[in-house]
C-alpha cells in the first residue's frame, strides 16, 4: 500500500496506464525554454526515433496529498485523451529525471510558438495560410470545449507550430497544476516584479485601448476580432460562431 505522496503518484500513474518512461531513454538535451514549474528541454527519444520536449513539473512532493495526486493523474489521463487531435500537442507520458522530478513527455514543435513564428514569417505567409491557421486554432479550442476543458491561458506562446499547423499546448493542467505546492524557486513574488511591466501596453487594454488593424486585412476579419475583444464578455461571439464566420471569409485577399 502506498504510504507517501510520491508512492501515491507512482502507483496512480501505473494503475491508469500512463506511459512512464525511464529517463535514460532520452539523449542529447538542449534547453529550449522555461515553463511555470521548471525548465523545458528538447531530447531525442532513441527507442521511438522521436524528438520530444520534456517539461519539468518541479513540484515539492512533501506538500502533496492523496486527493491532489488523484486529481493530477486524472488531468494526465485527460491530456492523453485529447492529444490525438491534429491541433493539440501530443502527450506521450511522463518520466522522472535525475533530480527526482516528473517531466511531461510532449511532442516537440520544430517551428516554435506562434508569436515567434509570425515574427519570422509574417511577410512571406499568404493570407490563405493565416486564415487556415486561425481556423485550426479555433478547431482545437472547440475540441477542448467539447471535452469540457477550458484552456484558461490561451495566448500566442501557448500555440505551437509544426509544419504550418498550429497545436494548442498547456491546456489541461492550466488550472489543476496551479493548486500544487511549488518549490521556492519556481515563481518570483509580485512585490519584486520589474515596474516596467506595469507600464506595458497590455495594461492599456483595461482602458479600452486596442491596436489599429493591419493594412490589407479583410474587413470581415477585422470586425470578427474586434467583437472578440469587446470589453463586455456578453457581446463576444461563441467559439462555434467564430469558426462559422472564419469559414465565410474568402481565402483570397
Give a written overview of the molecule.
32% of the residues lie in helices and 19% in strands. The chain has 253 residues and is of the alpha+beta class. A 6-stranded mixed sheet has the order 1-5-6-4-3-2, with helices on one face. The protein has a two-stranded antiparallel sheet with strand order 7-8. Keywords: ATP-binding, Kinase, Nucleotide-binding, Transferase.
List keywords for this structure.
253 residues, alpha+beta, 8 strands, 19% strand
Order of strands, widest sheet: 1-5-6-4-3-2
Overall pLDDT score = 81
Distance between the termini: 64 Å
Radius of gyration: 20 Å
User: Strand content of the residues, in percent?
Assistant: 15-25%
Share in helix: 25-40%
Total number of helices: 7
Pfam family, one: Pkinase
Protein name: Kinase-like protein
GO molecular function, one term: ATP binding
Keywords: ATP-binding, Kinase, Nucleotide-binding, Transferase
Summarize the structure.
The protein is of the alpha+beta class. It has helices spanning 5-15, 66-82, 114-121, 127-146, 173-176, 219-228, 239-248, and strands at residues 20-21, 26-35, 38-45, 50-57, 91-96, 102-107, 159-162, 165-168.
Amino acid at each position: 500500500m502506498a504510504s507517501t505522496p510520491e508512492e501515491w503518484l507512482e502507483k496512480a500513474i501505473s494503475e491508469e496506464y500512463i506511459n512512464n518512461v525511464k529517463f535514460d531513454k532520452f539523449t542529447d538535451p538542449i534547453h529550449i525554454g522555461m515553463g511555470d514549474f521548471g525548465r523545458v528541454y528538447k531530447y531525442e527519444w532513441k527507442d521511438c526515433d522521436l524528438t520530444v520536449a520534456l517539461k519539468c513539473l518541479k513540484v515539492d512532493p512533501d506538500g502533496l496529498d492523496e486527493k491532489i495526486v488523484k486529481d493530477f493523474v486524472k488531468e494526465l489521463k485527460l491530456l492523453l485523451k485529447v492529444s490525438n487531435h491534429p491541433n493539440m500537442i501530443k502527450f506521450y507520458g511522463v518520466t522522472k529525471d535525475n533530480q527526482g522530478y516528473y517531466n511531461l513527455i510532449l511532442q516537440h514543435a520544430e517551428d516554435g510558438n506562434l508569436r515567434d513564428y509570425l515574427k519570422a514569417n509574417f511577410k512571406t505567409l499568404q493570407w490563405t495560410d493565416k486564415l487556415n491557421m486561425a481556423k485550426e486554432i479555433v478547431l482545437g479550442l472547440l475540441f477542448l470545449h467539447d471535452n469540457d476543458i477550458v484552456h484558461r491561458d490561451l495566448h500566442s506562446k501557448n500555440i505551437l507550430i509544426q509544419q504550418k499547423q498550429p497545436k494548442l499546448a498547456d491546456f489541461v493542467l492550466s488550472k489543476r497544476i496551479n493548486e500544487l505546492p511549488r518549490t521556492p524557486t519556481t515563481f518570483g513574488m509580485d512585490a519584486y516584479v520589474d515596474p516596467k511591466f506595469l507600464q506595458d501596453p497590455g495594461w492599456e487594454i483595461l482602458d479600452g485601448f486596442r491596436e489599429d488593424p493591419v493594412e490589407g486585412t479583410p474587413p470581415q476579419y477585422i470586425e470578427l476580432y474586434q467583437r472578440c475583444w469587446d470589453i463586455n464578455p456578453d457581446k463576444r461571439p461563441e467559439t462555434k460562431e467564430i469558426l462559422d464566420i472564419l469559414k465565410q471569409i474568402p481565402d483570397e485577399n
